[in-house]
């Protein structure tokens, strides 16, 4: 007599096969969209030494001036009024049952249908705020260091190291680029695919701030916290290789409050709310960089940026300071509206709420030509 497998087993197997196929198709499509011609690094624009000196002098003036308590929050409140939450918690806290608002939307704008996964994760994380050494400072200065090629040759490293909080994004490296970007990292803010693969880009006392976009992101960060290996089949659902280990203690790991993402996207940038699309989002997700600027406004009294500015009119210029991708690579992505973001950052800088130390968005230190 032949043994029959339960129909539930077949259904479960079929379901997993379908998910894997969809995952592989998604990875393939995303990789195609990001494919672009590599830039010829020998053709990088020459950086005028006088321009670099003006940038360095401007950055040093910013860090040497008297710090102004609550300056950026007051400016954001004045500019955006009720759209900006003055008292928003930067990171997710354990008392999530009292925070109904974070469960209204799906990731990255909220944690709808992820309360159990989130609770399990938070049980592993003992802290949810800045370290006491930073909290106790009466006035804190943040600088968000972007990945832009505009940083090449400016030699802002020394000035950037003087800020109280230095926020770095995704896998943007420090090793080998310290003259231009410094070597101090207070916060590394990223999503799983963006996390540095090299253990040398993590610092013992630096915070690792995770931005969660999808279900497997919860599994990945939990595996990192517990120092476990993520199953091979689960790795198929990431659009590129993710780190296998993160040398950061659980007490230094934070989960970005999705209300920061929601506030940035729907309230400040005025993007449409999530719409159901088969291939993800439709340019209503802010870049990690802009999320970090809004996060910095909640963490610090003063905020500066460096390494920001996508000039899409110059497709053959370097996109990043650390690789040979061209600016044209941004034309293939469908998640971010970099034009709207540039206008937002220009507004902050022209209103003198935020300082641009590298001049990629708006240059206050550039020599004006008649």
TrEMBL record:
It is an enzyme of class 2 (transferase). It is found in: Golgi apparatus membrane. The chain crosses the membrane at residues 12-30. GO terms for biological process: lipid metabolic process. GO terms for cellular component: Golgi membrane. InterPro entries: Glyco_trans_29 (IPR001675), Glycosyltransferase_29 (IPR051142), GT29-like_sf (IPR038578), Sialyl_trans (IPR012163). One of its GO terms (molecular function) is lactosylceramide alpha-2,3-sialyltransferase activity. It holds the Pfam family Glyco_transf_29. Disulfide bonds join 142-300. It catalyses: a beta-D-Gal-(1->4)-beta-D-Glc-(1<->1)-Cer(d18:1(4E)) + CMP-N-acetyl-beta-neuraminate = a ganglioside GM3 (d18:1(4E)) + CMP + H(+); a beta-D-Gal-(1<->1')-ceramide + CMP-N-acetyl-beta-neuraminate = N-acetyl-alpha-neuraminosyl-(2->3)-beta-D-galactosyl-(1<->1')-ceramide + CMP + H(+); ganglioside GA2 (d18:1(4E)/18:0) + CMP-N-acetyl-beta-neuraminate = ganglioside GM2 (d18:1(4E)/18:0) + CMP + H(+); ganglioside GA1 (d18:1(4E)/18:0) + CMP-N-acetyl-beta-neuraminate = ganglioside GM1 (d18:1(4E)/18:0) + CMP + H(+). Its EC number is 2.4.3.9. It is a single-pass type II membrane protein. Keywords: Disulfide bond, Glycoprotein, Glycosyltransferase, Golgi apparatus, Lipid metabolism, Membrane, Signal-anchor, Transferase, Transmembrane, Transmembrane helix. Belongs to the glycosyltransferase 29 family. Transfers the sialyl group (N-acetyl-alpha-neuraminyl or NeuAc) from CMP-NeuAc to the non-reducing terminal galactose (Gal) of glycosphingolipids forming gangliosides (important molecules involved in the regulation of multiple cellular processes, including cell proliferation and differentiation, apoptosis, embryogenesis, development, and oncogenesis). This is Lactosylceramide alpha-2,3-sialyltransferase. It comes from Podarcis muralis.
């Amino acid at each position: 007599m032949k043994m029959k497998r339960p129909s539930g087993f077949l259904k479960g197997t079929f379901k997993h096969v379908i998910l894997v196929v969809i995952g592989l198709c998604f990875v393939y499509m995303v990789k195609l969209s990001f494919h672009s011609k590599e830039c010829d690094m020998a053709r990088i624009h020459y950086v005028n030494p006088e321009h670099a000196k003006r940038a360095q002098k401007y950055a040093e003036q910013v860090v040497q001036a008297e710090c102004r308590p609550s300056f950026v929050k007051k400016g954001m409140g004045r500019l955006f009024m009720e759209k900006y939450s003055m008292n928003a918690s930067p990171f997710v806290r354990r008392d999530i049952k009292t925070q109904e608002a974070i469960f209204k939307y799906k990731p990255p704008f909220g944690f709808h249908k992820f309360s159990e996964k989130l609770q399990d994760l938070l049980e592993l994380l003992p802290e949810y705020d800045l370290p006491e050494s930073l909290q106790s400072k009466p006035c804190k200065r943040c600088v968000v260091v972007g990945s832009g090629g505009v940083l090449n040759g400016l030699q802002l490293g020394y000035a950037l190291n003087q800020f109280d909080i230095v926020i770095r994004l995704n896998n943007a490296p420090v090793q080998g680029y310290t003259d231009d970007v410094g070597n101090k990292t207070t916060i590394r803010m990223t999503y799983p695919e963006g996390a540095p693969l090299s253990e040398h880009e993590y610092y013992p006392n630096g915070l690792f701030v995770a931005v969660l976009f999808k279900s497997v992101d919860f599994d990945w960060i939990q595996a990192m916290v517990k120092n476990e290996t993520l199953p091979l089949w689960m790795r198929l659902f990431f659009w590129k290789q993710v780190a296998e280990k993160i040398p950061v203690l659980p007490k230094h790991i934070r989960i970005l409050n999705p209300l920061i993402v929601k506030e940035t996207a729907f309230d400040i940038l005025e993007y449409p709310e999530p719409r159901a699309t088969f291939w993800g989002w439709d340019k209503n997700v802010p870049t990690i960089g802009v999320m970090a600027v809004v996060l910095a406004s909640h963490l610090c009294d003063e905020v500066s940026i460096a390494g920001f500015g996508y000039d899409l009119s110059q497709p053959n210029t370097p996109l990043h300071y650390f690789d040979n991708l061209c600016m044209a690579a941004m034309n293939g992505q469908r998640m971010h509206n970099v034009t709207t973001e540039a206008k937002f950052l220009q507004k902050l800088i022209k209103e003198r709420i935020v300082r641009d130390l590298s001049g990629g968005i708006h240059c206050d230190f550039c020599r004006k030509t008649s």
